[in-house]
């Protein structure tokens, strides 16, 4: 923990530095600091959060997690990836939370560099990644939807993911004003030809980073669970050899496309993802190993943010 020295006559800054020193250097609890300074515990907590955001406190981890670092390097070498980050399971974290935390740290690093456009999709793990992302000082950052506004009671729309990230980064945000899935191919084409939708997707298409969630096939798929694809259509997809899905586009183990009957996404296509500057796939759980391998074979994933159990399966 580094406390950045400051010469500042601002009483609020002086208080923040004092609270930070008492907490990190003297080891007092937030309640003990509150009692000593005549503040509420919630005020102390807020001061510490603001001090980290404003750069008064900088957290530096001096020892790496060697096992997860080794796994990340192994994934890069084995699959020809441009990058990988593996989230450790801490205190019984779920695989999804471990992967989301890894993605969150990656997003913070990307945004901190400034002058960057980040496109994001939809889904539980991506939503969790946005929630896990910490407020980060940035400049000239744009966050854009890579998918229409698909949502249900149990999932989070791309618009909410990008809204959350824009708040965390104090960034501009751009939305795709359409549903995530159209009811027919003709309606999907109508949406895609709409100037506001076309502009947003073109911005996502040329983004510096695209963040996608890698989905599974079969009866456990989020798309069938939420009613976007019928069980019969899913059975056809499975019979055709599909192993995974990104943005509603299915592919087999060799990365070849598998058409899903009745599913018409308003989103970046697999061609867009292959031609994108850098696509980061986030996924948690060993059961997604074949889905991840297929996405890599399809050329639509350049980097991974995953948990230890999935990394172990991919390296087995």
The CATH topology of the largest domain corresponds to: Rossmann fold
Count of domains: 2
Strand order of the largest sheet: 3-14-13-8-4-5-6
Poorly predicted runs: 5-9, 152-156
Structural class based on helices, strands and sheet pairing: alpha/beta
- Coarse morphology: globular
Describe the structure.
It is a single chain. By secondary structure, the chain is an alpha/beta fold. The chain folds into 2 domains: 2-58, Arc Repressor Mutant, subunit A (Orthogonal Bundle); 66-315, Rossmann fold. The chain has helices spanning 11-25, 30-37, 41-53, 66-79, 95-112, 124-132, 158-169, 185-193, 195-205, 222-225, 231-239, 270-275, 289-297, 308-315; strands at residues 2-3, 57-58, 83-87, 116-120, 141-145, 172-174, 181-182, 209-213, 242-246, 249-252, 257-258, 264-265, 279-283, 303-307. A hairpin with a 2-residue loop joins strand 9 (242-246) and strand 10 (249-252). Mean pLDDT is 89; it is low at 5-9 and 152-156.
